[in-house]
C-alpha cells in the first residue's frame, strides 16, 4: 500500500471501508481467474509494468493490509519475513494473499499506525479497497478478459477517491486524471480519476 494523506484521517469513509475492501477483493479474485502463466509478460494499464510486476505489487499491498489488521500497523519498508514470497509464482501469491484477507477486516481494528502516523482503520481499508479494485481491473485488462468494476462498488469508491487520493498523495501511486465524457458511468469515472484510460489501452 502507498502512503495516505494523514490530514484525511479526520474524514473516515463512514465505516464502509472494510465492506468495500471485501467487495474489491472478491472482484480482484474473479479477475485473477482469467490469468495464466503465459500472460505474465503482457503489458498492463500501469505504465512500464507487465502483469507479473503488477501481481507482485498487489500481493505486497494485500500483505500490508493483512499486517494492518493483525498487528495494527503497516511498515513502509518490506518485512524481513516477506523474503520467501519472492520465489513464489505471482498468481499464487496474489490469490493466497487475497483469500487470507477475505473476512479479516469484518470487524475493523482500532487505529492503524502507518509510518508512525495513527490512521482510522476505515481509512486504511478504504484506501486498500481502491487500490485492490483498480488493480483487479488492470489484471483483467492485461489478461485480455476485461471485467468492469461492479457499478455499486465503483460508485462507492468514486465517492471516497477524492479524499483518499489527493494531489498530495497521487504522485508515485496514480497517474494524472484522464478526461472522460459527462455521460461516463461510475466505473469509467473511477478509472479515469485514478489515471486509467477506461478504454483499457496499456499505460
UniProtKB/TrEMBL annotation:
Residues 23-140 form the Mycothiol-dependent maleylpyruvate isomerase metal-binding domain. Pfam families: MDMPI_N. Transmembrane segments: none annotated. GO terms for molecular function: metal ion binding. This is TIGR03086 family protein. It comes from Actinomadura litoris.
